[in-house]
Specification:
alpha+beta
Amino acid sequence: MTATDHLVRVRSPLGRESHGRLADIRVARDHSLLEVEFEDECAPGLPIGGEVEIALSEASTGKLVWLIGKLVTQNRVDGRHRCHFELATEAKDGIRSMVNRRQAVRVQPGSESPITVSLHPPTGGDPATPSVHDISTAGIAVIVSREDDAKLFAHRGLSVIIRLSEHPEPLELEGSVRVRRLLHSSVLYGIQFEAAKTSDFADKQALIRRYVMERQMTMLRSLKPPP
């Protein structure tokens, strides 16, 4: 089963930590296998068969599972390392419950990595400039003023222009408003990205995915390991 957008922290017996992304997981009757992707500079320096502690993190719920595994294969492709870790039988239920979810992981922007957004109705006019509540590879949630909601509520489709803190060029995506909910004195909009209507969607989504991963890594580093 696929397990994208989950993060992994690997800690060697000497205390060295490496951070990567969970690319895939295979659960069998007698063992489980994690496939983890690391950037070149973050790859763990381990011998084949080396035992490590593994923290599997789900940012959308804050759930964190610590596991024991051993490195069984490591391959370097296009500047990245793909490592397979074999886990003990008792780890099967814990990891299955975390990765058997289909929704994209959402993260909230941090003060060190802000996002700015503007919403443009199809009829033209001044754009709305809401604050960002959270973002994922599938969509974005923004907080719109009541005044801007009065201009936007009749439109299901909106153009969404996103400026990521680490990417100089704005990303223009087409979106569909799926949720409108009163939030105190403002309105929360849940907007789903429309891949078929967005030019170069895969490239833009890859930039958003990288942002989401980096935010998850920041959150994961802030978590304390078990005593």
